[in-house]
Amino acid sequence: MADTVVLLHWQNRGMEFVAGREGGPTVIIDGNGKAGPSPMVTFLIGLAGCTASDILEIAGKMRVTFGGFEVRAEGDRWPEPPRRYTKIRLVYRVAGVNEGDREKIRRAVQLSQEKYCSAIHSIRQDIELTSDVEFE
Amino acid sequence: MADTVVLLHWQNRGMEFVAGREGGPTVIIDGNGKAGPSPMVTFLIGLAGCTASDILEIAGKMRVTFGGFEVRAEGDRWPEPPRRYTKIRLVYRVAGVNEGDREKIRRAVQLSQEKYCSAIHSIRQDIELTSDVEFE
């Protein structure tokens, strides 16, 4: 039995799929990016969500709280097929963090990227990954 | 300006995020895999959706029609952090295809994997990728 099993079921129109872990919550994705995010957007959401969840978990363990949290992921792609990602920039935007806790957030980002993030470590190693942490 | 920009907005509870391309359709993803697919499930959905969309597009150009289409993706992961994918198996299940068109579907799968799929070409090159095509 595999660790993670997902199923995509074509909706018999356009490039729309209902997708999810078997028996788990589903999302709609759309090869044309209209009825739902496109596959390459979904792939990047998975990556950004992985590191974002790490930050929440690590910050929780460090007892750092915040009022708002957003991750923006910007991907550059190869101009010809396959239009793979060549460069990914992650911007972590955190609101309402005490001055004294900001270094902990930066450390959480570093820990996620270097040690914990399963998605970041699943992408091509020659994809140039950069990041920024912004406090509001 | 980056080619693909996504935004994940934390919902201020658990590990739930609303995510999507800026100004595009959104999905809910959940680090705990309850309110929505988990990030690593989402990442695999993106990959499977990418190759699935290729098949629809290539089959369309080959004028091959089918009654149903599903992609199952099975991922094995490293047992320790980072729990990256080590092995991915893709099963393409196609229903209602003429005997004479089955070879074309197999060819479409091969073209997607070798040449077109932007997500497959964005993952680590040492991830062992296997696939099967099943006709119903």
How would you summarize the topology of this molecule?
Two copies of one chain form a homodimer.
Chain A: E1 4-10, E2 16-21, E3 26-30, H1 39-61, E4 68-77, E5 85-95, H2 102-116, E6 128-135
Parallel strand pairs in A: 5-6
Antiparallel strand pairs in A: 1-2, 2-3, 4-5
Helix pairs in contact in A: 1-2
Could you give a quick summary of the protein structure above?
The structure is a homodimer of 136-residue chains. With 136 residues, chain A is α+β, with helices and mostly antiparallel strands.
Task: Explain the overall architecture.
2 copies of one chain form a homodimer. By secondary structure, the first copy, chain A, is an alpha+beta fold. Chain A contains 2 helices and 6 strands; from the N terminus they run βββαββαβ. The longest helix of chain A is centred in the middle third of the chain and has 23 residues, at 39-61. Strand 1 (4-10) of chain A pairs antiparallel with strand 4 of chain B.
